[in-house]
Amino acid sequence: MKPIFLGADKGISATSLDLSRTGLDSVRVEAWGITEYDYKCGGAVPGYPGAIIEKVHPVKLSDGCWKFTIVGEGIIAARSDTQIIGYPRNTGELMGLDTIVDEWETSNPNKFKLGQRMTGGNIIVCTSVTAQPMNRQKTRFKVTATGQGILDQSKPYKESYNVTTQDWQRDSVRVNLAGGWTNYRKGSIAQAKAMKTISYISASLPDFTDVSRNATPINPPAIYTPFMSGQISDFTWLFPHGWTLMAIIADPIPGTTVGAVQLVFELRQQKIL
What we know:
Elements: E1 4-6, E2 10-18, E3 25-33, E4 44-45, E5 48-60, E6 66-74, E7 82-83, E8 89-91, E9 98-106, E10 117-118, E11 123-133, E12 141-150, E13 158-175, E14 181-202, E15 236-237, E16 242-252, E17 259-268, E18 271-272
Antiparallel strand pairs: 1-2, 2-3, 3-6, 4-5, 5-6, 7-9, 8-9, 9-12, 10-11, 11-12, 13-14, 14-17, 15-18, 16-17
């Protein structure tokens, strides 16, 4: 290949050029110069300013000039944003929020921003972003975004149930039920305790003044509540009773009001032993 002379003393000719959809392009050129140090590693490949010299092999010619074999890598041809094959990757959770990881090669390191809604699922918001330069000039980046939220398209929330028992001990009690006893004696009575948790993604912080107020969750579980009778002084009376919002747990993304919210409900008995 005949060299392309740059002025009176230098010339280049490309011997190979590999352009890639993702990753770095590579180029191999032959160049001519006057001194041994005309081309150095870390400089631009002659004729290809988007590529950086990674290897140089200089050879002195009989006429006193130098011939260089140069290998370089970089972003040589213009590219559009490219999603990496295999992404996005979805991870569904039985309990808790689901996760999406997306990865792109792009010239925009701010392709994703914290709190923005991501593609996929019912509602997924970006919770972390990393942008790693691909080339020395920092004109191309590999951007990885992780989002959390709800993948299930049928409902914008996750729900979990926790139904347990709590024992109440009394010095004198009778249980007029199958398996119980009809004469007063010291005993322990088990009562059902039901809790329900709703998890979702919110664009704003919830109203924390709702905590300790009566509120019925979506799809509340039914539990067994035996009838108890006796003197008023025999019981501890609860207010509020019935379904009550016991806690709000909010985890906003830094710098935003967007984040994960959990609402914890409890079915409180009107009276306990």
